[in-house]
Design goal:
Length: about 180
């Protein structure tokens, strides 16, 4: 094997013994290397741009979807009512609303807000209103649910009861004032 190598070296000695390097060949190699690196760099930048554009498209689609969802929810603004679920439930709720409005009118005719008992009863009515609003939200989220429907009617009944207590307290105050006028 060493004889083959020696033969090769002797035959190629004139080509191998070069005192000065071949600058042209070296610079051609460097130029080719730079060109290949530049091509890789261009391809890499192209893929980065494509990836960034794809990410931007995904973000825009997501934001658009959320915006459309919010706008359609805001536009619809339609809340589910008991009448939408069942006609009988709707008529029952309507009767309760009419009764509550009548009781409010009767209780509001006296306007003794400085009375502590009446003030506390009015606070309880406000709490019931908050509970009623929350149950309406639950009704919209859950749809037909017997417990939610029962809670709605319970709030009406409790509100009517509290309004009747306010009316009784107002009547008690009115009767007390009338009795004081009689004794004077």
């Amino acid at each position: 094997m060493s004889s083959d190598l020696e033969k090769y070296l002797q035959e190629q000695r004139s080509a191998l013994d070069v005192e000065s390097p071949d600058d042209k060949a070296i610079w051609e190699g460097v130029r080719d290397g730079l060109h290949r690196t530049e091509l890789r760099s261009v391809r890499k930048r192209m893929w980065i741009r494509i990836r960034n554009m794809a990410a931007l498209v995904i973000i825009l689609i997501s934001v658009g979807y959320m915006a459309i969802d919010l706008v359609s929810e805001h536009r619809s603004g339609k809340t589910l009512t008991l009448a939408d679920l069942d006609q009988e439930l709707g008529s029952r709720e309507k009767e309760y609303r009419i009764l509550v409005n009548l009781k409010f009118q009767e209780a509001g005719a006296y306007n003794h807000v400085d009375n502590l008992i009446i003030a506390e009863l009015l606070e309880e009515i406000q709490k019931l209103d908050t509970i009623y609003e929350q149950t309406l939200k639950d009704l919209n989220e859950l749809g037909y649910n017997e417990q939610v429907i029962q809670t709605i009617f319970d709030t009406y009944e409790k509100k009517i009861f509290l309004l009747e207590l306010i009316i009784l307290e107002n009547n008690k105050i009115k009767n007390h004032e009338n009795n004081q006028d009689l004794f004077l």
